[in-house]
User: Fold this.
Amino acid sequence: MDMDNVNRPAINIWTFFALAALDIAVNAAAGPAAVATAAHVNGSPLTARAMQIGALAGVTKSGVLAFVEFAGFAGLPTPAWILLVLVASGFGICVLVTAEVSNLVLGETPSALLIAAVVAAIPLAGECIGLYESAGGLYGSKPQTQLCIMGFDALGGYVFARMAHNGGYDICPYNVAAAAGAVYGVITGFFHVILGCMAGFTFYESTNGHYEIRNVFGTARGYNPNWNNNIGV
Assistant:
């Protein structure tokens, strides 16, 4: 079966809203879980304020990604779209969340922490794989990608703590940051793995090149010019 000229099912706007709400909820839970893990590994007391900040950071990360993906439905001009993509990139998300948390905790945003966020964004880039991709909207199901991201989240936490230390800010021991990142990655990654696996159950029908392909998230129809390549195979 030649699938090179076949469009993948795209999620519709209502499915997107439902998935976005779920993703925000998952990230809102992952943030406090990461904070609780850090407190446990570090042997420090866990406060309600720290949990709230963790939840807010998770909601911010997921909310920005959801907003940018939603804007994609509107067909924005190219300059505006490029700006939004930069904001929702790994670098943009890390800098934004770091600035938010720094202002809440320190009352300022030290440049050293922003630099640490930029460097940590390199292994954390996979965290910015959005719902559209996870649900198979653009590239199909890739749950294995999310499994790798779980490990990179731990690395991102370590890198951030290390770079912050180099900049004069000992936010926490390296192993604590890595543990918090790992927990966050497992919770959010597991959700996206489920989406990817669900999108992987795809049904394909074709009649003389006119095809219909569907999964639980949507349906795509079109014409495959190479439909007869597999005749007799």
In short: The mean pLDDT is 82. The longest strand covers residues 210-215.
